[in-house]
Amino acid sequence: MVKLVVGLGNPGAKYAKTRHNAGFIVLDSYAAKKGLVFRYSKYCKGEVAAIADTVFLKPANYMNLSGQAVKAAKDFFHVELQDILVLTDDVESPLGIFRFKREGGAKGHNGLRSIESSLGTKSYARIWVGISRDNTIPLDQYVLEPFRKEELEKLNEEEDKIHQLIDEWILGVTNV
Fold it and tell me: Of 61, 80, 94, 161, which residue is 20 to 30 A from 152 by alpha carbon distance?
């Protein structure tokens, strides 16, 4: 039984530290802690790393098309829906707060909409990573702005907790 952990974000240096890339940021820190190295896979349409029976994916296409890579990886590795976990940004939660959901809607998130469209279901787990929200600027502009230094430090302070949650999900012991 293979599990698939997906970090959502936009590819390229231009977006590397943006709020919308919180999923990539969390997955990169998790991979670094585990000594994993991502390599591009044409079969999965993204960067892939693996340890034991778990595959980690960073889609190579833009956020709004990330479902294509998730579906490709799911099919290539024969992953069941209940064995998919998506890490994504959440403007509705305070910075650094994260929430685990076994399934649910996209809440207006285009990356999750793409995944739901590609998979044909909302039945996959996700960890929402809080990035807060600034109502003084348009949302599409806000999520594409880079985190400030102190915001990245706040995320780093919480990374052990979110890494533990990822580990628990992989092991099947998540009690939330």
Answer: 61
- For 160, other C-beta atoms within 10 Å of its C-beta total 11
Question: CA dist 69 to 23, 63, 119, 132, 139, Å?
Answer: 15, 10, 11, 27, 25
- Which CATH homologous superfamily contains domain 3-171? Peptidyl-tRNA hydrolase (3.40.50.1470)
Rounded to the nearest 5°, which phi and psi values hold at 41? -125, 120
pTM: 0.94
Catalytically active residues, by annotation: 20
| In the chain, where the domains are located | 3-171
- Calpha distance 23→100 (Å, rounded): 13
Longest CA–CA separation in the chain, Å: 46
